[in-house]
Amino acid sequence: MTTDSGSGQQDPQREQRIEDALIQFLDLRERGEEVDLERFLAGFAEELRSEIQARIGSSIETLAILGGAAEDDEVPTISGFRIEHVIGSGALGTVYRAQDEALDRAVAIKVLRRGTAQSRRDRILAEGRRVAALADRAIVTIHSLVEEGDCSAIVMELIEGHSIDRVAAPLNGSQKAKLLTEVARALRVAHSQGIIHRDLKPQNVLVTPELDVRVLDFGLAISSDEEEERHKGLFEGTPLYASPEQVAGETLTPASDLFSFGSLMYRILTGEAPFNAATVNEIFNGITSLEPTFPRRIDGAIDTDLQAICLACLAKDPADRPTAREVHEDLRRYRVGDSIRLRPALYSDILKRN
C-alpha cells in the first residue's frame, strides 16, 4: 500500500526508495552514461517501478524545459566567495571552483540541489561537520558549511587531480599499492571515528599529479550509530561497488566499506570491476551470489599478495572481511617487503572443494 487507510499520506520508506532511484538515474545521466530505462527499472521492486518511471519522466521533462540556460541561472551567490566555474555535477549537487576572498585561496564548493529533500540535506550537512573533524592527509579537508536562504553548500579543499582508476591505469604494481594504502588509511581514520563512507568508488578518490590521494564525497556517509536507526530495505550507493548487505538493504557496518574497497582495488589491479554486467540486477546477483575471477587470471603480472588482500575484502560474509586497520597495515607490509597476514576465506573454500 502506498498510503495509510483514509489518510492519503505517503509511506515515508516507499517515498525514500523512489527518491533514491531517481537520484541514481539522474546521476548516471549526468556522468554521460547511456541508461536503458527498462534495465534500470528491473533493479527495483516491481511495485515501485511505475512510480519511479513517472518521476524520471517528469524530471526529464523539467530538464528539457530548463534547457541550457538553467546552469547559468542556477550559479549561486555565496557571501565571501567568488564562483568561477563548474568542476562537476552529480545527482545531489554541483561542484564549483571558487575563490575564498577573505583567505585568497582557491576552493571547491559543493552546492546541494534546491530540490534535495530536507532530511537528506540535513544529513549531508551533519556528516560534513563530522568529516571536517577528520584531519588526515588522505581525506579531503572540509573548510566550512554554508546555509544562506535556500542555498546549502560545503566548502572544501580544491584537489587538482583525476579519479584513481584513470591515474592508476599506467602505473606499476608498487605505485598502485601506494595509492591503495592511502585509501585504506582514509577508511581506517573514518572508521575509528564511527563514520561509514557507504559510497566508495573510483570517482570518489582523487589523485594529484604528485600521486597524493584524497578520499572525498561523504554525501552518503553516515555514523555507525545513525546506521542502526535507519530503515532496512533502502539501497544507496553505486551498484558496481556496493556490498552484498548494501544490495540487500541491510544495516551496514564498516565491513561494507571494506567490500567496496575490495571492488575498488580489483578495478585498480585489473582494469575492470569484479562483478560487471549488463543490468543492475545481474550486477547485484554477482555481488551477492558469485565469486570474482581471481585477478591473476586476468593479469598474471599482479602480485599474489595484492590478490590475496583484494579477495579478502571481497568475502561475502562481513564477518570474514578484514578491518580497514588490517588492510592498511598489510598494504604497508607489502610495500616494505614484509609478509602479509591476510588470507582470503575464498582460498580456504577452494581447498575444501578440491
Explain the overall architecture.
There is one protein chain. The chain is an alpha+beta fold and 354 residues long. It folds into three domains: 12-68; 74-157, 2-Layer Sandwich (Phosphorylase Kinase, domain 1); 162-353, Orthogonal Bundle (Transferase(Phosphotransferase), domain 1). Helix content is 46%, strand content 14%.
State which percent range the strand residues make up.
Answer: 5-15%
The coarse overall form would be globular
* Tally of DSSP helical segments: 15
Q: What is the second-level CATH architecture of the largest domain?
A: Orthogonal Bundle
Q: Enumerate the strands of the largest sheet in spatial order, edge to edge or round the barrel.
A: 1-2-3-5-4
Named CATH topology of the largest domain? Transferase(Phosphotransferase), domain 1
SS elements, strand count: 10
Series of secondary-structure elements, N-terminal to C-terminal: HHHHEEEHEEEHHEEEEHHHHHHHH
User: Could you describe the largest sheet, including whether it forms a barrel?
Assistant: 5 strands, antiparallel
Q: What is the name of the CATH class of the largest domain?
A: Mainly Alpha
- Counting helices, strands and paired strands, the structural category is alpha+beta
End-to-end separation: 50 Å
Domain module tally: 3
Mean pLDDT score: 83
The helicity comes to 40-55%
How large is the radius of gyration?
21 Å
